[in-house]
Amino acid sequence: MARTQNLSDASVITAKVVARRSLYSDVDLTFKPHPNTGDVTTLRDIDAVKQSVRNLILTSPGERPFNPYLGSDVRGLLFEPVDNFTAISLRRAIELTLANYEPRIEVQSVEIEPQPDNYRYGVSISYRILTSLDTDNVTFFLERIR
Predict the structure, then answer these.
(1) 137 Cβ partners below 8 Å, 6+ apart?
(2) Are the C-beta atoms of residues 138 and 97 closer than 8 Å to each other?
(3) pLDDT value at position 121?
(4) Burial class (CB in 10 A: 0-12, 13-18, 19+), 30
(5) 5-33: average pLDDT
(6) Are 131 and 110 in contact (CB under 8 A)?
(7) How far, in Å, CA of 105 to CA of 24, rounded?
(8) Architecture of the domain defined by 23-143
(9) pLDDT mean across residues, the chain
(10) Which of 4, 44, 17, 46 lies closest to 28, judged by CA?
(11) Is it the case that residue 82 has pLDDT exceeding 80?
(12) Going edge to edge, which strands form the sheet with 105-115?
């Protein structure tokens, strides 16, 4: 006995395949092996964009070959006094970098919290991914090493 497939079955199968397809993918920079395949894991959609946002902020201009303008001036500002004036400059540098080099997102807010006792800044970036309208945020600390 053979099974026939009607039009409604085909549309359900197609919808499941489309739902599994991701728009963005990137290599996970922690280089953790996949538990089943042992290959390098990949980040998809929201996680890939989140990694990209963080990498753009932490990349200095001139650091990437063949793209000397990519990055932000955040590292240079970390050697300034930890105060509200430097926090404003950091926020402007982050907003400018994301507006210029990350076309997949729309930045909703950038919050910089100076922590003078620990010689660092708390950074929280909220954004909306334009293709899926999902919102997400990235939170990390900026501190100088030396």
Answers:
(1) 124, 125, 126, 127
(2) no
(3) 96
(4) exposed
(5) 60
(6) no
(7) 12
(8) Roll (3.10)
(9) 84
(10) 44
(11) yes
(12) 105-115, 120-129, 135-143
pTM: predicted TM-score of the whole model, two decimal places: 0.78
Residue 18 has pLDDT above 90, yes or no: no
Q: Which helix (H) or strand (E) holds 89?
A: helix 84-101
46 three-state secondary structure: helix
Burial class of residue 97 (count of CB atoms within 10 Å of its CB; 0-12, 13-18, 19+)? buried
- Contact (CB, 8 A) for 114 and 143: no
Torsion region of 99: left, alpha or beta (phi above 0 gives left; psi -120 to 50 gives alpha): alpha
Q: How far is Cα 82 from Cα 13, in angstroms, rounded to an integer? A: 56
Q: Which two tokens stand for residue 3?
A: 């099974």
11 has a pLDDT exceeding 60: no
Residue 12 has pLDDT above 50, yes or no: no
pLDDT surpasses 70 at 6? no
For residues 31 and 39, the answer to whether their CB atoms sit within 8 Å is no
